[in-house]
Write a structure and sequence with these properties.
Structural class: mainly alpha
Shape: elongated
Radius of gyration: 37 Å
Length: about 120
């Protein structure tokens, strides 16, 4: 959703709600004009505040985008380096485990042969 259309929608909705409330409330002409002026001033103030907040949000988003342009590649590089270091550190253990598995398989085969010889 476009930020300007959101702000415009909020302001227009606020003004319509204020005006409709004023027009449906019974009061004198001078009182009505005073209320309309007050509502108008409040609507201007609300619009100014919304505009200021929208500009701050836009600035914050721009800052985040700029920071992410440098941070994300650095984090990616660091993760890749950490993964490579981890893989290098576990390689000897991995090879040792594979050797042990091969030894266990050979021992199981010997046991099966002995059991078959004894069973016959």
């Amino acid at each position: 959703m476009n930020g300007k259309s959101l702000i415009s929608g909020i302001v227009v909705g606020s003004v319509i709600a204020g005006v409709s409330t004023l027009l449906t409330t019974p009061s004198s002409g001078e009182s009505m004009r005073s209320k309309v002026r007050t509502t108008k001033e409040q609507a201007k103030l609300t619009f100014t505040e919304l505009k200021s907040e929208a500009m701050q949000i836009k600035s914050n988003v721009s800052n985040v985008v700029e920071e992410s342009k440098t941070v994300i590649p650095n984090v990616s590089k660091d993760l890749k380096t950490s993964l490579e270091i981890w893989q290098d550190s576990i390689r000897p253990h991995q090879e040792n485990i594979q050797d042990n598995i091969a030894l266990v398989e050979k021992e199981v085969e010997k046991l099966e042969k002995n059991l078959n010889k004894n069973g016959e």
